[in-house]
Please model this.
Amino acid sequence: MEHWKLKALIIIGAYFLLGRNLMSVYASSSEMTELEMCAAGIATEYEEKKIDVNSMSTQPMSTLTLTDGTYYMSNFMEGGYLYCAAPPIGRRTTIAASGKKIQWILNLQSNGYYTVREAEHGAFLECGNGTTPVLSYSGDVLTSGRAYWKITVTGSGCRIYSKNTGKYLKLNAIGSLSSANLSLTSTISDAIIWRVINVNQYGNSSAYTYRELSSYSTTVQTVNMGQSGKVTTTLVPSAKTLWTKSTDFSYLDQAIKTGYYYSINADGSYKAILPAYTKLKVIHKVTGLTKIINIPIKAKASLIGVVPSDSGERGSGILTGKEILEGAGKIPINYQYRDSFNVEEIANAMISSELFIFRGHGRYDHIVIGEDAAIYFICNNLPDLSEGSSKIVAYVACLTADPEKENTIAEMTNKRGATATIGFTDTIKRSKANLWAKEFIDSCQKGCTVQQSVVNAQQFSGINTAKIFGNAGYVWR
Model:
């Protein structure tokens, strides 16, 4: 009997000691930092809710083994390569242009941490003051631990953090990527994700995880004023074999007045503001591959008037015309009546509008688009109208079809691609010109031919000096 009791006490004691040990393990793990828990393989809440920075279905990195070797290290969010400088910076550059300046030698140490040395001179990447990483040639970086880095591989990319500080390596873009620098942070974001690409496997068609973009094409929607559009990129090779996402691209408005014709977002979507056939620069930030494309924004009509330098007015005819068109459902209308315009504005409005009416001063080879500043729109400023929406252009201005001159602006506009253009062979009075513009617009929207619209405007205003170039039988719908 006493023997049985002794065995029971031994079993109960063993279970009690095991329970205390399990609780001790749990308690000690709860006191570990999140980074230490991840490194030890202990599940954390963050690991259960990983952010997906790889939204374009790229290959997972679970098969990637970071053996000792030479690597390219490219920031996943900003697209810049870790570049040999002091301090290291991310930079828009191509592989061929940089050589060893963007190559880094990774060596796994016995303690499970890596050292990271730049390939050109052998300097160690170290945590510096704990805020800003630096390059160091000092031998004490290893004994002090400042040059030791933990590199964890996930389906989204690699995270690199300092043994000494427990903080992640982050790329900061300052203005442009060529001015970027590094810092250390505890904050989880796309900026701490890195592409770590073995130099020997870069571009290897059999190692899809490591491939980088070789080329791309773009398509752009044609939209009306006020609508939204998007620049779509087609990647070569396809997105499934690339480490590429939408924010690898930047979009730079090439217009003189940036943000004037459209506003563009980081993902390539944009909101159309004014009619334009203007340029946009698309840059793949990782490789530097660049394209210049056109953003086509249409208007049904552009009615442009220049405020005279004296006390008169030129806006009433085109303003009434705007109201007529809107009442007939012919929208959108780009109506602008102000002191001056620049050449780019006039060219964009002309190429992107089916009906373009100008009210202001003119001569055989130009129209005046700013009287006080003497700004001229000359024949050489005419865009290739065949590329856009231009159908009817009417210069309601003096001598824009001067019969004593060759290659007048009205004639040259037709030659540059407008279906029909109208100019005037003589001077015209301002008040009658306003009446002519209003009646011509009204007749066009009613479905009259260009010829009949000119006749109607002549009868309404008393001006009989309008001359048509091109297709007088064209009907604007």
In short: The chain has three domains: 69-203, 215-296, 298-470. Residues 1-64, 205-210 have pLDDT under 50 and may be disordered. Residues 2-30 form the longest helix (29 residues).
